[in-house]
Amino acid sequence: MAEYINIRGQSIEVVASDPANPTLGQIWYNSTSNTLKGLGFQSASWATGNNMGTARYALGAAGTQTAALAFGGETNPPPSYLTATEKYDGTSWTSGGSMSTGRYNLAGTGIQTAALAIAGTNDSVTFTNTEEYNGSTWTGGGGLPVGKRSLAAAGTEPAALAFGGATGTGNVGTTDEYDGTSWTSNPTGLNTARAGLAGCGTQTAGLAFGGEVPPATASTEEYDGSTWTTGGSLNTARDYLQGAGIQTAAVAFGGRNPALSPPTTTGVTEEYNGTSWATSPASMPIARNFGGGAGTQTAGLAFAGRTPATGPKSNTTEEYTGGTPVTQTITAS
Predict the structure, then answer these.
(1) Which residue, of 32, 67, 284, 327, is most buried by count of CB atoms within 10 Å of its CB?
(2) Which domains does the chain possess?
(3) Is pLDDT at 260 greater than 80 in this prediction?
(4) pLDDT at 4 (0 to 100)
(5) Which of 28, 35, 23 is nearest to 13 (CA)?
(6) Are 85 and 70 in contact (CB under 8 A)?
């Protein structure tokens, strides 16, 4: 985005109404309201939301900040592989329909009324199962060619992308595409096989970042519908992190670095512009890993997972407001 300070020869305009598309740094005088205004930048921030009904970690997630979906996951002790679904309306969580198969370390994508729950495990079986959610109930969908856990997903229910993860023999970089009925394997997988990664975007413009190779990686890859290419690296290497947004405007938050002793959970937040990651000035108040993530770069949502304060499971929720241009009234004070 061009900044007004770099556009030479311009003076402060007197206008009857605020400009429809002002430039960052531009100042104008609104003669109708008799106010001096400018386009500044709103600082990024995290705010605490209401708790979920069931504490859990390694769950599936989908949707937006004001219409999110949480499903599956594990709670312990003792270990229990959940089918429970919860819906978030921007204020509170309510129960939704239960999945057919209880599992954790699954992937989720889509919106609250059209979501996918993909693969996962119950420690005895690594699933290929896909389930489709219509806003109230789950039904069976097409299965992945190979069972995987700790994978990532992107896209919509009728056009989804699943990538990375681990099988019974180790980490993989395989990529599969869903057409609303069945999965098709793309012979071109991720350049770096990994599990515990985050993903966002669409089937033709996906983004993969972080994960466990091992060790934890900062690597980012971009998908164009056929191949993966290397993007800018995260500033903080981590696995089992959360992410949201699109390929050219993504946000990464939470995660852990298992190479440290003891493994360190982080609340560091980063924003991606399609080329590089920048560390946000706002870090999560509650650092977490194995959590759920939803929303966009400017309106993200983090929930559940493992936190230092709650140990094996959490039901906490946090809402992210990304740094965005905003019209501000300029006053003497």
Answers:
(1) 284
(2) 4-42 (no CATH), 47-321 (2.120.10.80)
(3) no
(4) 46
(5) 28
(6) yes
Structure tokens, 169: 């023999």
In angstroms and rounded to an integer, the radius of gyration of the C-alpha atoms of the chain is 21
Between CA 20 and CA 36 the distance in angstroms is: 16
Token pair 């008799």 is found at 34
Which two three-digit tokens encode residue 100? Answer: 């057919």
Contact yes or no for 104/82 (Cβ under 8 A): yes
From CA 324, how far away is CA 322, in angstroms rounded? 6
State the pairing for strand pair 27-30/13-15: parallel
Taking the C-alpha atoms of residue 135 and residue 91, their distance in angstroms, rounded to an integer, is 18
Please say if the pLDDT value at position 113 is more than 60.
yes
Query: How confident is the model over 117-151, as pLDDT tens digits?
Result: 999 999 999 999 999 999 999 999 999 999 999 99
CB-hemisphere CA count at 13 Å for 243? 35
Question: What's residue 17's pLDDT?
Answer: 85
Exposed, middle or buried: residue 19 (CB in 10 Å: 0-12, 13-18, 19+)? middle
Q: Where are the beta strands (DSSP E) in 120-233?
A: 130-133, 138-140, 152-156, 159-163, 166-167, 170-171, 175-178, 183-186, 198-201, 206-209, 220-223, 228-230
Q: Is 281 exposed, middle or buried (0-12, 13-18, 19+ CB in 10 A)?
A: exposed
Which contiguous run of DSSP H or E holds residue 303?
strand 299-303
Neighbours of 258 (CB within 10 A): 18
Tell whether the torsion through CA atoms of 247, 253, 258 and 259 is positive or negative: positive
Q: What values do phi and psi take at 234, rounded to 5?
A: -60, 150
Report the range of poorest mean pLDDT among 22-31, 191-200, 289-298: 22-31
What whole-number distance in Å separates Cα of residue 247 and Cα of residue 121? 28
Exposure pattern of 310-329 as b/e (b: 16+ CB <10 Å)? Answer: beebbbbbbbbbbbeeeeee
